[in-house]
Amino acid sequence: MLENEASDIKHVFNLHHNDTRDLLKVIPSSKPLVDVTITSPPYYDLKNYEFEGQIGHGQSYNEYLNDLEKIFRDVYQITKETGSLWIILDTFKRQGNLVPLPFDLANRLKTSGWRLKDIIIWEKDRTLPWSRKGELRSIFEYILFFVKGKNFKYYVDRIKISDPSKFAEWWVKYPERYNPRGKVPTRVWEFAIPTQGSWGHRFLRHFCPFPTELVERIVLLTTNKGDTVLDPFTGSGVVLAVANSMQRRYIGFELKKNYVEMFPAILKETKAELEIRKRHRDAQKSQQEKLETTIKRLRLVKYPKALVRRLYIQKLIEPQKFPINTIFAISREFSQEELERKDRFKFLKEDLYLVFNFGSHLGRAKLYEHIESVASRPPLSKFGIASNFHLLTRDRFIKEQKLNPYFDWNKLWFYVRGVMNMNEKSITFDEWQQESSNPEWKQYFKNGVPPVVSNIEVNQPLIKTWKPKIPRSIKAQAKAKSLAEFTKNE
Q1: Do 64 and 196 lie in a common domain?
Q2: Strand locations in 318-384, DSSP E?
Q3: Chain centroid to CA 274: how far?
Q4: What region, left, alpha or beta, does residue 284 occupy, with left being phi > 0 and alpha being psi -120 to 50 degrees?
Q5: 140 and 178 share a domain?
Q6: Domain holding 235: CATH number?
Q7: Number of domain units in the chain
Q8: What is the DSSP string of 100-155?
Q9: pTM listed for this prediction
Q10: What pLDDT, in 10s, does the model give residues 208-264?
Q11: Residue 489 belongs to a domain
């Protein structure tokens, strides 16, 4: 809870032993307080919570929907324009027919102003025993994600997958296809629910307790420290406990007195669990920063090779007539002037020097226009690199670059034969000057593309993650052998 919170609303940030239909009697609607609501309404006519007039049990389906619509209309009033609503619920069977509750409720909430932004599948693994004719075992529920306004909070970078072992191996060869911050999770979230009937060392019966990891992900995705999290159907208290552990304020409503009484214990146990996972999150953040650096470096080193290949393919430069000796790729920061006018999709800066053995054509403006045109279209435009291009003869380059402030002449790396993820060696400018004048220099070319000298160091091995295909004949033999053994045992 914030220290400077106005005293007249401090009492709001708590778990209230109240009916959530009285939400607006507890939370003032004059100034929206809520940043995100994460909740799961009571199951329709499936569990008796033993309260008179309770939501779900003993109601008609239409009455049940009316109550939920009214509650989430109230939630809309107390939610900030940047806020969101996450409802976790499932379909159910009645009289042999499937009732699409998530979709019926989503249609109702449109009238309140909520905008359905996404539907996520929560694969929860463990469930209560369930077996009926015409119904397979259910291991998932729906998560409906609603927003109030267009500028809703959504920090997807915080939950991106940054473990390279979960990528296809091609992220090294094709870094331009992978976001430097990691891979966006899919709409299927796998979080196992806690063991039924227990919570840590304490006994807590709850029909479907939330896993803390699920709540943590939504809180990370939609809020900042000091923001407010609401759960109008608090139940086991996991949503509020996670919010508290992540330094968010919380508001909850719960009718079962024993749940309210056990909430302090849930707060304590969740805090201990989240402390352990915070260390994991910190490690993930460090891993994400490392991945971001690696992908950016891979892009910067591969880009000059990809450019020259494209120039050759389109015959804008003929290597036989005008051979390129070396490509110098010098990465640097954007100047303040460049930042003010740069394309928002360009987040890397690189000066590219195509160093020719000779070339009377190098002063032609048309050639620069062609290169700029190639760089502005895919695949080059996918790299996110803003480039300055320079076409110079080797002699002129040597003469002019001695004055270049962006060069550290003793910290350059050498990439040869088209291998852009591993440098051959470190090289000084003087060493390059000497080696590049020898006939043996040609050994470093591949398909006419010259070596690249860069101020970026990359040493990222290509780790194969795919399995070699088994020849069809071997597969057939194995299948026949398996069938013969099965038949013999029968």
Answers
A1: yes
A2: 324-331, 348-356
A3: 20
A4: alpha
A5: yes
A6: 3.40.50.150
A7: 2
A8: -HHHHHHHHHHTTT-EEEEEEEEE--------BTTBPPP-EEEEEEEESSTT----
A9: 0.82
A10: 568 999 999 999 999 999 999 999 999 889 999 999 999 999 999 998 888 899 999
A11: no
pLDDT tens digits, 308-332: 999 999 998 888 888 999 999 999 9
Is 467 within a domain?
A: no
Going by pLDDT thresholds of 50, 70 and 90, the confidence category of residue 440 is very high
Nearest of 221, 212, 196 to residue 271 by alpha carbon: 212
In contact, 443 and 316? CB cutoff 8 Å: no
Burial of 259 (0-12, 13-18, 19+ CB in 10 A): buried
pLDDT tens digits for range 44-86: 765 656 666 578 667 888 998 999 999 999 999 999 999 999 9
Phi, psi of 168 (to 5 degrees): -70, 150
Pairing outcome for strands 188-190 and 115-123: parallel
What is the domain extent for residue 437? Answer: 314-454
Assign 3-class secondary structure to 279-296: HHHHHHHHHHHHHHHHHH
One-letter amino acid of 286: S
Tokens of 368: 């620069």
What pLDDT band is residue 197 in, cutting at 50, 70 and 90? very low
- Give 183's DSSP letter: B
**Rounded-to-integer distance, Cα 194 and Cα 292, Å:** 34
**Exposed, middle or buried, 308 (CB in 10 Å: 0-12/13-18/19+)?**
buried
